[in-house]
């Protein structure tokens, strides 16, 4: 059975914090994902999310400190079964 996995990145600049949203859409409900968000190599979020009905997806929205200049935000989501989704955004 083929599974669709997408990790989308979206960014919105606001003053000294940036809003970052990452979504995993797998079309499978109940799959556990270990998620890490990094800004310029430093971990800003680490947690577990589970895909939910009806779409088999989850999203994470975080405000991340923005000290100025270009920042690189990378999201990585991994399953115990070996599935990996990764997205990067430079803003």
**What is the average of the pLDDT values?**
82
Oligomer: single chain
Report helical residue fraction: under 10%
As laid out across the biggest beta sheet, the strand order is: 4-3-6-7
Q: What series of H and E elements makes up the topology?
A: EEEEEEE
Write up what this structure looks like.
The chain has no helices and seven strands. The chain has 91 residues and is mostly beta strands. It has one domain: Immunoglobulin-like, CATH 2.60.40. The strands form two sheets. A four-stranded antiparallel beta sheet has the order 4-3-6-7, with no helix packed on it. A three-stranded antiparallel beta sheet has the order 1-2-5, with no helix packed on it. Strand 1 and strand 2 form a beta hairpin. The radius of gyration is 13 Å and the shape is elongated. 14% of the residues are buried. The N terminus is likely disordered.
């Amino acid at each position: 059975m083929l599974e669709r996995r997408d990790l989308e990145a979206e960014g919105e600049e606001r003053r000294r914090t940036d809003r970052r949203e990452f979504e995993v859409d797998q079309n499978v409900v109940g799959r556990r994902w270990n998620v890490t968000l990094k800004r310029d190599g430093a971990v800003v979020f680490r947690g577990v999310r589970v895909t939910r009905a009806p779409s088999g997806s989850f999203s994470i929205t975080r405000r991340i400190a923005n000290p100025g200049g270009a920042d690189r935000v990378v999201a990585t989501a991994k399953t115990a079964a070996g599935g990996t989704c990764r997205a990067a955004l430079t803003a």
